[in-house]
Amino acid sequence: MAQILLVSLLSGLATTLGGLLVLRIGKLTRHGLAFFLALAAGIMLAVVCADLIPASYAGGGANAVLYGVTAGWLFMMVMRRCVTAVLRRSPLAKGASFHYLRLGWFIAVVTALHDIPEGLAIGAGDMLHPELGMLLALAIGLHNLPEGMSIAVPLRMAGIPGKKILGIITLAAFFTPLGTLVGILLFEVSPQLISMSMGFAAGAMGYVVARDLWPEAWHSSKLITAGGTILGAALLLIAGHLHLHG
Question: pTM (2 decimals)?
Fold first, then answer.
């Protein structure tokens, strides 16, 4: 158990590494922001379509997918309103700064939420076969890099200090090993719950892509949005193929 928890932690901390890379880059243009957001959107969509929904269906059937995705989508609708209400009290809650502040926090929240079922998948995979758990952790770590970037970019543009940005991202990253621990403990008790949680994560990720990532990137550049999304999805699918056949 200790080994897979450590691997899961490293997978989660890839999110922090992605944020650190952004902080090391010079001033970002709107086109640069659009590219990072579109890249994250493509990776999230690939995870939803190629990983979370198939896994949810395999474990719990169509009902697990339907109920899980619907619950995740509705939850994020409510969460977005709550995050907006809380952030309006921030000293930065004005003009473009508030827009980027809300976007960064919202992506951080959805990242933390979907890290839990992804951690569950790592734990369940390890219970089925240790190599499967390692493979899932590696694939999740790969897509955590641009997710960390997608959190850091808007927070940076909102004027949040670098140390606070890294703290926020690292906090979200710890939800991956937490999910792994829960997955190990619950695997033999309720496989259906794991299937539902994967559907929930798919719905949450789909919402943030459709409601925030795509519209923000599309407003800056339609071409960059399309290219970044395709590139992000392709990178994850290629990485998954290489690890499955490596």
Answer: 0.71
Place of tokens 């890294």: 166
Let me know: does 186 contact 117? Beta carbons within 8 Å: no
The structure tokens listed for 114 are 């979907």
With a CB cutoff of 8 Å and minimum separation 6, the contacts of 185 are 123
Residue 187: strand, helix, or coil? coil
- What residue type is assigned to position 46 of the chain? A
- Cα angle 17, 19, 83 (rounded to 5 degrees) comes to 130
| Cα–Cα distance for residue pair 146/18, rounded to 1 Å | 6
b/e map of 159-169 (b: 16 or more CB within 10 Å)? ebeeeebbebb
pLDDT tens per residue across span 122-145? 777 677 667 767 767 776 777 678
**Is the Cβ–Cβ distance between 208 and 107 less than 8 Å?**
yes
